[in-house]
Every structure is written in C-alpha cells, then in structure tokens.
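Long-time lurker, first post. I've been practising inverse folding by hand and with some scripts of my own, and I keep getting stuck on stretches where the structure tokens seem ambiguous. Below is the full token string for one chain I'm working on. Before anyone asks, I'm not after the true native sequence, just a reasonable design that respects the backbone. If someone could post their per-position residues I'd love to compare against what I wrote down in my notebook.
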C-alpha cells in the first residue's frame, strides 16, 4: 500500500520576539500570571512585511532544503491557516506562485488550531489516492492581526509563525513498521462554535473581525477531546501509549498538554513542548514543534510520533507518523 513518508521539515518565525513583560505596560496582567496559567514566556509577532504567505513560503523552502528537493519536485500544496493573506484566492496559491510553481495544485484548509493535523490527513489521502506524488503541508498563521490587543484574556496567548513538512508517496507493506502516516482520527462539533470564534467575516459583517474566546470553556473540553482522538488513533494502528517515541501536541497551554499526556499515560520525557517559545500559533504550532525536535536531534528516522490538536469549531484530531 501507498504510505506518505516524511522527507523534510522546516519552519519560519517573524523577526520580532515579544516577551510577556511587554504586556505589563499595556494591560492589567503579569509575566507570572501568563507563565503559571499557560507556560508561555514569549511569542513572535509579524511585522508589516511579514505575512501568512511570506512565512509559509520561508517554512516551505526550509522543508524543501531539509528534504534535498526543489519546488519542481512538488505537485500538491495544502496550507492550513485561519489568517489568509486575502479572503480569496487561497494563500496556498500565492505560496505556489512565490515558489515559482506553475504545475500541480494548491489549496487552503481551515480548521483553526487543528488545521495542520487536518492538512496532514488530507494530503495523505491525496497521495494514497494517486492524485499527487509529493506534497508540501504547511501551517502558517499571523494571529497577531486578528487579536484584540486590549483584551488580556486572549491577546497574551497567541503568536505568529509557520512550519512545513514534505510528504512523499512511497510503497509500504501495510504494517505499523512502515515509515509514513500510519493512522489518523479527525473530529468536529459545531455545537461549540461560539466558544472560540472571530467576530467578523465576508458574508456577515464584511470585516475581518477579532478573535473571541471563552478560555475556561475551551479548557474544560480540551483534554477529553484530545484523549478521545488519540485513543482512536492508537486503536486504528494497533499500538499503545508505550509504543510512542514522541508526542507532539498543539501548543496552546502547557497545563492542557500535561493533563492530556497524564490521562493517556505518556511519559513527560516523550512530550515536545515549545509553547514557552512560540505561544499558541494555531495551525503552525505542531509543525513548529516538529521542526524544533527534529533539528535538535530528538525526532529521528524510525521514531513513532503522535501529532494532536484541538481548536475552534470545535475541531480536533490526531495523526500517527513513523518518521
Ligand atoms: O488553541 C485553541 C485552543 N485554545 C485553548 O486551548 C485555550 C484554552 N484555555 C486556556 O488555556 C485557559 O482557559 C486560559 C489560559 C485562557 C485562562 O486560564 P484559566 O486558568 O482558565 O483562567 P480563567 O479564565 O478562569 O481566569 C482566571 C482569572 C480571572 O479573574 P477572576 O474572574 O478569577 O477574578 C480572569 O479575569 O484570571 C483573570 N485573567 C487574567 N489575569 C491576568 C484572565 N486573563 C488574564 C491575564 N492576566 N492575561
């Protein structure tokens, strides 16, 4: 059977780093509160010349370089984002153009913080169906542009950035020993759509709008939803938590990550944490964390890696990859 094997990983961050202390002069908040409640110490904030497309392009180029490939080798781009450069066309098409590609096809996916997990599962389906041979799967976000900078309950949580994977279709044996995407589980439930949303849009207000969140409500649901899809993925692949080499969760809040890992019986030393450095970068958080852990030598070929995310919608999902 066809497997989607990881060939390369890359990321890109805006130049400007904003530490928690910078908020202390703007809002009634503190470095202590932010660190204790979330684990976040800093985030990167895009300047005017840095956009979802430019960050996504830079992450894609880094992943291609890591794979030893060029844009000519790619025939599919799936971009996970909720902060596109324009309402349309898809920012994926702009990235395709920036990479100098006039072949293949590119489209955006919108599943908010779960976007990258959805995008990996979607690219995997396309590769296994024979619609493409090599895919760039990108998560790129500029959430700083949709934050209400006077709302301390949301603006301290998010940051900007991008990460990307190159996936290549390759023949596998059909067992859990294969390299590549081994199993996935995706879910959504619109009952919760008003707990984390943007209060604008082309068809309603005609404006871009700002992010609104009932943090405590999201927090309450997060660990349960995350563990459900991971257990489903374990079941589909016929493995247990002990078989995992690495757990690379969405980086929204260290307390949610710790609670999920504990509930699943995943040892602390297997958990990749980057929320302290990047904040919550929505669809970019998982590939940014992957890039950190691959480049520092933690994730290696043959490792069993579980990706997971949960976010607005609600949407949630998990993907198991043999690196
Ligand atoms: O990526 C998509 C998924 N999103 C998430 O996973 C986010 C999920 N939610 C969370 O991570 C947490 O709920 C937050 C970090 C957003 C908040 O932490 P919490 O422990 O749930 O705090 P809370 O909302 O219950 O607020 C506790 C107190 C409140 O004051 P009172 O009502 O107890 O007097 C807030 O007004 O903290 C206050 N507060 C702040 N204080 C200082 C809220 N934001 C801040 C702030 N600085 N920035």
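-- Answer (accepted) --
I ran through it position by position. Result:
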């Amino acid at each position: 059977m066809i497997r989607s094997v990881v060939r390369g990983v890359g990321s890109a961050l805006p130049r400007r780093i904003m530490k928690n202390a910078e908020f202390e002069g703007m809002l009634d908040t503190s470095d202590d509160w932010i660190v204790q409640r979330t684990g976040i110490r800093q985030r990167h904030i895009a300047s005017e010349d840095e956009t979802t497309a430019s960050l996504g392009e830079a992450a894609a180029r880094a992943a291609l370089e890591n794979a030893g490939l060029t844009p000519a080798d790619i025939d599919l781009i799936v971009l996970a984002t909720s902060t596109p450069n324009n309402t349309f066309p898809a920012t994926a098409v702009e990235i395709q153009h920036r990479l100098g590609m006039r072949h293949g096809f590119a489209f955006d996916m919108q599943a908010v913080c779960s976007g990258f997990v959805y995008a990996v599962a979607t690219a995997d389906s396309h590769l296994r169906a024979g619609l493409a041979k090599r895919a760039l799967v990108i998560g790129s976000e500029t959430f700083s542009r949709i934050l209400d900078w006077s709302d301390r309950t949301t603006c301290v949580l998010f940051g900007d950035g991008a990460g990307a994977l190159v996936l290549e279709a390759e023949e596998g044996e059909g067992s859990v020993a294969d390299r590549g995407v081994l199993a996935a589980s995706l879910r959504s439930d619109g009952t919760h759509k008003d707990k984390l949303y943007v209060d604008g849009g082309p068809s309603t207000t005609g404006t871009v709008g700002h992010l609104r969140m009932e943090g405590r409500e999201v927090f309450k649901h997060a660990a349960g939803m995350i563990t459900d899809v991971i257990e489903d993925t374990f079941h589909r692949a016929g493995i247990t938590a002990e078989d995992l080499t690495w757990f690379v969760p969405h980086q929204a809040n260290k307390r949610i990550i710790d609670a999920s890992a504990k509930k699943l019986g995943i040892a602390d030393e297997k958990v990749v944490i980057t929320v302290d450095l990047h904040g919550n970068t929505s669809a970019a958080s998982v590939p940014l964390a992957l890039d950190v852990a691959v480049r520092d030598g933690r994730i290696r070929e043959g490792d069993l890696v579980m990706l997971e995310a949960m976010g607005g919608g609600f949407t949630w999902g998990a993907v198991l990859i043999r690196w």
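A couple of notes from the structure itself: Residues 180-322 form a domain with the Peroxisomal Thiolase; Chain A, domain 1 fold (CATH 3.40.47.10). DSSP finds nine helices and 13 strands in the chain. Happy to go over any region you disagree with.
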